[in-house]
Every structure is written in structure tokens, then in C-alpha cells.
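Lab manual, section 2.4: Encoding a predicted structure.

Procedure: take the sequence of the chain (135 residues), apply the prediction step described in section 2.3, and record the output as C-alpha cells. A sample record is shown.
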Amino acid sequence: MENLKISEIEQFHDISELVELTCNATAQKAEKFLIGFQVEMDVTVVNKNGDKKDFHLVFQNEDRSLRIMSYSNYGMSASAVYGCDADETPELEKWLSETEEYDFAQSVISRCESIADDLAEVKYLAMLEEFEEEA
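Recorded output:
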């Protein structure tokens, strides 16, 4: 994607942990989920008019407080929905919507979220392996 440049990626896992939850809806057996993991990215985006703008995107583990199952045990999403003021995902969407580039905005966010998911998966698998070795 030539209209997107990711200049820096930083991981924060000081408070990461595996928690065991049972899905309320299905009463499935307890599974381990990664919580407390965060990925921050500095990105430069170029819109269709050739204008360039920098954004700081922050992704955190999806909220598990209601014991809602998701597609993975380490899923990440833009953290603005959790009240993180440093996450400029809404500003990125707004800026690109001014030039009616809604699909491009979603593809940028999806690509960055996918990178965050990949990093979370690596952390999750490492912690799971460590947990199983201790058991």
C-alpha cells in the first residue's frame, strides 16, 4: 500500500497476562485470553489529493469484561473505543472521509490492526507456552 507508511511500531506488555474465561453465552469450557497488551504505531497516510498527514494509532486487546467470545484469544482493536485519547484512529477516518476515501480509511486501519493482531498472537503463544510449562 503505497499511500501508507508505518514509521514506528512499539509493543507494551508490562501488564500483559493470560486470564481464563468461560463464555457466558455458550457456557463453553474456560479458555485463556491475553489481556493488557498494547501496540502503538506512527503512520503517514497520503490521500487521493496527495496531501500527507501523520497519525499515532493505538491498538489494545479487545474488552473481555463481559466474557464475550471473539475470533481469537488475543484480538486487538483500535483503543479509542476504550477511551484512549492517544489513539488517532477517529481522526484518520475523519480526515480521509473529507476526500470520500472511506474504503481506503478502513483498509489502513485493517492493515494496522492486522499487524497488531500478529504481534499479539506471538505474545499470546509465548505466554501460553510458558504457562503450560509451569503447570
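Check your result against the sample. Residues 102-134 form the longest helix (33 residues).
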